[in-house]
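check this one:
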Amino acid sequence: MLLGVVFFSIAFLLPGAVMAEGTGRLVSVQWLAKHKDDPNLVIIDVSKTKYYLENHIPGAVSGSFSAKDYISYGIDTSYGGDDLLVAPDARLPWHAGSPQYIQTVMRKMGINNDSTVVVYDEGAHFHAPQFYFALTFHGHKNAYLLDGGFAKWASKGLPVTQAVPEVNPGDFVAKIVNPNTVVDTDYVLTRLYKKDTAVVYAVTSKWYYGSYLAYNRPGHIPSSVLAPYPDQFQEDKTWRPADVLKRQYLAQEILPEKEVIVYCGGNPASISAWFTLHHVLGYPNVKVYYDATTGWLKDPRDLPLHLYQNQHLLRDPLWVHWYAGTRIQYLLTDPGTIAVDVRPEEKYKSGHIPYAVNIPVQELMAKKNMTLKNWQTLLGDKGIASDKEVVIYDEQTGDAASLMFWLLEYMGHPKVSVMTGGLAGWNAWNLKLTNDETIIAHPRTKFDVSISPENFIANPRKNRRLVNANEKPDFFGLPRVWIACLKNVPARMPVSDFKHIPWDQNLDSAGNLKNAGQLIEVYEGAGVLKYAEIVCYSDSVEDAAMTYYALRALGYPQVRVYLPSKGAL
C-alpha cells in the first residue's frame, strides 16, 4: 500500500465566489443565496418531480419531468437526475441521448454556452452529479453543484417557492470534448485485476454482496472494490471534508496515481463517485463505465459477477478436485497448488483428499516451542512455497482451516485460500478420498506424483497480527475496532471498547460459512465498517482467525488477530 501520495487540489472559482480549497466545482448555499438573481446564472433542480413541485429554490428550473408528464396511469415515473436526458430509444436505463438530443434539452432549460449553471438535488444524492456530468461531458465549462442540495438550503431558512419560472430558450451547443472519460465493457475487461487500475463499485453493500437482487443476478464485477456513494456525505448532506474522503479511498487502495474506473447499477451513483474523485479530490484519471452492471449483465458473453470481494479466498471442492487433485499430478511437473489437511493426524490417515499433506495446525499452535523458524522448516518440508497456492480444508466448520489461513497470511504467503464446506462439501459431490500416503520427495521422473519439498521463507506481516494492545492505530488515521469473537465475553478484555460478535455468527445453520450478503449484515449491523482497522480477539486463536477469514473474504482492507508475544510464534 502506498502512503506517500500526492493529491491534486482543484478549486474552480465562480465570479465573485469564495470557495474552500479542495472543493472543486462545489458552491455553498450562502454563495447561491447571494448570487441567485445574477442574470447569467441558471439554477437546475434535478430532484424528483414531486419534490420540485412541493418546494424548490426560487428561480430554479426543473431538470425532471413536468407536472403533466411524470404520472403514467397513476404511477410516478420521475427518477430525478436524468428524466429529460434519456432518449426514448435508449438501449439501457439512465443512458443520456445523443449530443443533439442533449443540446435540445439543455436549451429548453435556458442554458447558454456562457451561463453559470448551479445544479442541485435533494442533497447527498447522485442526481445532481448525474446531470452535471451530462452537461460538462457535452462541453459546458461553467457548471457547479450546490453542496448539500435543497436540504442544506432549507435548513438555513432560505426562501423556497412552488412557482415554476418562465424560461427563455438557451443557445448551448453540445459537443463531446473528452470521449475517453466513458469506457465500455470491452475496455473494463482489459483492466480487471491490473495493479495500476482500481475498479470501484459505488452503490451500497447490499447490492455489492448480493443480499439485494437489483437486476437478474446479484453481485459485483470481479476484482472491483466497494466505495458506496452515501459515504461521501455528512449528516447535513454536504460532502465530507477532503481529508476524510482521501483516507477512505486510500484505505481501499483507490489511489490517485491509478486509473480509476467507477461503475454502479446503471451509472447514476458511479457518476457521483466520479465527481468526488475527479473534482473534490482532484484524481487525474477517473473514467466512468457508463453501461455499468446493466450492460455487463446484458453482454452476450454471460459475464460473471462475484459475491465476496475476495472471491479467490474461497475455493469450491470441484476447483480443488482439479487444481490440487489426482489427474493434474500426471499432467504437470508442478501443478502450482497444494491442498493442506489441517485435521488431527489420525483423522487425516482415516481418509483425505488425494495428494493433500497434513498439518494439524491446532495441535501445533498449542505447543510452546513452535518458533517462526520451526514453522518455516515444517512448511517447507510439507511442500509449501510462496509461489504455490495453498488451499486449506478441515472437517467442515472452518475453525482449523481459518487458523491455518491466518497463520500463512501472517507469515507472508501471498496466495492462500480455504475449501468451502470442508470435507463435508467434498463428500457432498461424492468425490473420492484416499488412505494412501502422500509422498513428499524430490521428483524422479518428468511428471512425478510426489510433492516436492520446498524452502519456505517467512516474512511476517505486522498488519496481520497485533502483539501489543496499546499500540497506536496506524491506518490512514482511521479508527481501530476490536471484535470479541468468543461465545461469552470474559471479565478481562485487552480493551474496554469493543464489539461482541461470537465466532459462530460467521456460520449458517448447516455449519458452513455464511454467504457474503449474510456476513456483511452481521458486521455492518454491529457497526463494523470497512473504514477502520479491525482487531479480532479471543482466548482461542482459532475463533479469532475465523472472524479474520470472514472479514478478509468480505474485503475488509485491514484485519489483524490479537496474539501477544508468548506461546506459538
